[in-house]
Amino acid sequence: MKKILIVVLLPFISLVLSGQAGITESDSGVLRAGFAKADITPAIPVKLNGYASRKTYSEGIHDPLTVRAVAFENGGTRILLVSTDIGSYSAEVFPVFQKAIMDKFGLKESEIFLSTIHSHSSPILSLNSETGDPNNIEYTRTLQQKVLAVTGEALKNMKPVLTGTGRGSSPVGANRREMKPDGSITLGRNPYGVTDKEVLVMKITGEKGNTSGILYDYATHSTSLGPQNMLISGDVLGLSAQFVEKILGKDVITPAFAGASGNIDPWYRVLPGFNTEEGWIPEPVLLATMLGEEVVHVCRDIKDVHPGGMIRTAFAVLECPGKKSSDTDNPSAQPESQTVPVNITVARIGDDVAFVGFNVEMLTEIGMQIKSGSPFRNTFVITHCNGYSGYLPPAELYKEGGYEITSTRFEIGSSDMVVRKALRMLYDLK
Ligand SMILES: [Zn+2]
User: Does this model's pTM top 0.85?
Assistant: First the structure.
């Protein structure tokens, strides 16, 4: 009888023992990751995102649009990061996509980073038959199916991985708040203004060291093309991802994320189109190639890839004070009592990588503050993530004025609340 008990108990004892060691084991348990991508180039003419003056349909394709997804998992906790070659997931469209992802895959809201690269040569998303163009609504429905498909595929593709991180620098983005002689601020180029030049890269390899994907984060608008352009394009960030994938090979998938770039435009901005003069490299292609080459340089320099890494995630909605309508003639300004929601999503992988997503166009000073205050060595600030509440400027720029200040819905001081909350959430993941 005793013998049988021992035999029966032995597996339990060894389970308990490995369970004790499992505190570290689950912390550094097997990290898995999977990638997927799909073409999302519109098959029909669509209304283009980003410039209110542009009213007619797109007139062709310059380069294809793509949705790229990466899923991570460790110990049952997951992170899904989606990069979409689109302008933004509006406050109307985002909840529909989010719910579909949560319902189908059982992901929590804290595990989802649904982001866009903010291309201004991509379709407006809409599901509203009263305000949206029928072609754009049809496009958005198709996009939803494709986002679900790449999510499913990325989750299915997950296998044990090694990861490493590195950083470079790029001059492709420039501060666009140019001061005129009379002291007013106009949209232009301010080479002396604050600019976050960091190119942050995470490399993910299989157990044998073959690169399966890279994630990168850079702060720039994708607006090298202006309102006169009627061709579909991923613009700077989209074209840079196409370049990186071409160089690294067809099996490598490279989700790109727009950092805090509310006041950062590409060095060449709002051009009428792709210059076709013989011998001329069109500016969007030139800038995207410069950025893409830096991403590849950084990726190739990452020699230290390591296994494991615990995952933790959190999500919060921070209600910030809305700008009082008396402060501005901007019709989007809120009556005094209203607040504007900031969706903040945070996640960590291992000891030195964190992602922090915001549903705003955050000005670059704020992103730099979050990166420097973060307890994680490598903090990916992902804007245009999980909805859209417009520009979030730092308090010190309200006095200067300019486009981002007149069009923001946030009352002065909101950015300090967002920085404090995001840093608190990042510290709580530690
Ligand atoms: Zn913008």
Answer: yes
